[in-house]
Amino acid sequence: MTTSTAATAATRRFPEREARVVVVVQQKGGAGKTTIAINTAACAGRSAVQSPGDSPSPVVAIGIDVQASLEKWCAGVREDALPFDYLVTKGKVGLLANVVDDPERRRIIIDTPGFLDVDPDAEWGSDPLGESRTADALREVLDLADLAIVPITPSAITWDEAEFTIERILKPRHIPFLMVINMHDPGKDKQEVQLDKVKAWIDERNYPRVSDPIRRYTIHENAYENGTLVTEYKLSGTALKAREDFMRVALTMEQML
Fold it and tell me: Which of 6, 65, 214, 218 has the fewest CB atoms in 10 Å of its CB?
């Protein structure tokens, strides 16, 4: 699968600024947006060229959810283990411009709320985002985005919402996007039947995707409570596989940008 067309479009969106803005977005809650945003930022931060002295990190993670899930997770991580800066807006608009326009920033990865506030009666072709503080915050983010990451799970419960996100929210705004299959359970789906189904569903729609999924491991499920990032997992066999999954997302993201 090629992503060359989307990559070209992404680099043309805001050629005048140094930073590239990536928004992790999906209408359906429970697809793992916060986990993907934080761990992709961690992988990008670990790989970024660092300036000497007290220069800010070239990578910033931002959360716009009023629940401040990203802030709570990052606050639990050891300061010396956090390879990116972070900002939480709690739905307030007007706070992102200074970060996005900062010439020392290179990658800004934005986590969005657990579910999108949409108008169920919005006609096709109109903006389906609702009228609320959260919806306004999301519009601000989308106006700045160079690329969107859309998580989807092997369970079909997230598929329609992923398609809605792409067709009704991203495509009308001409935002390039990348799908990430998240929470594939290699123990329960040993023959990869369900994984093949979701890959086929994505490919039938010609949606660009990361080649392989982020696998569902207990180590991920405990990371929020333990205040750990994928880059800080102890180097066991499972941890190496888990890190590989998120590094793959970060590398594919870079290809798109």
Answer: 218
